[in-house]
Amino acid sequence: ETNYTLLQSDFSMLTTEFNHLNATYEQLKDDYNNLNESCIELQEAYEQANYTRILGVYFSPDGECEAKVLEWIGKANHTLNILIYSFTLDSVSDALVDAQDRGIEVKVVFEKSQISQYSEYWKLRNAGVPVRNDTNSKSMHHKVMIVDDAVVLTGSFNWSQNGQENNNENLVIIDDENVASSYSKEFQNIWEDSA
Length: 195
Prior knowledge:
This protein is an alpha/beta fold and 195 residues long. The chain has two domains: 1-49; 53-192, Endonuclease Chain A (Endonuclease, Chain A), CATH 3.30.870.10. It has helices at residues 2-48, 65-75, 90-101, 121-126, 161-166, 177-192, and strands spanning 53-60, 79-84, 105-111, 131-134, 143-147, 151-155, 169-175.
């Protein structure tokens, strides 16, 4: 009887301890789930917040400017809107034609004083890419590509052999919808005023 009483007492104590641990486990599980939900909400809020990310800063000569322009043309899902001063790189015009062929809406405005026999204006136009030349009396000195109304490539880098191999140029890649929206408005104004 004594052993039975001791076993019953131990069993009762272990049952109480088990119930306490189980309740603690359930509370910790609830706390974990609540914390996990809070983390997910915080992540979603962060992703939706207005923030600017500089995705890269590149320099030429001997830099990656041309490669980065090509990379972002390849990443486009919907639109590529471009304002460009000097544009003579075959690789970039080939990539733009390919982008249009895969369903990307491509529009390019060239500085009219830079449209020559070497300009990629003619290749793009002949391939059916919508191109215009800036008709205002001032130089349209932009070097901008807006990708999907979200990412902006800008800087001093002209899309030319000189820009890639001879000049000290820069290219900054910015991921910010507000910045992209400002550039898109500028693009639209110039596009509408161009021929």
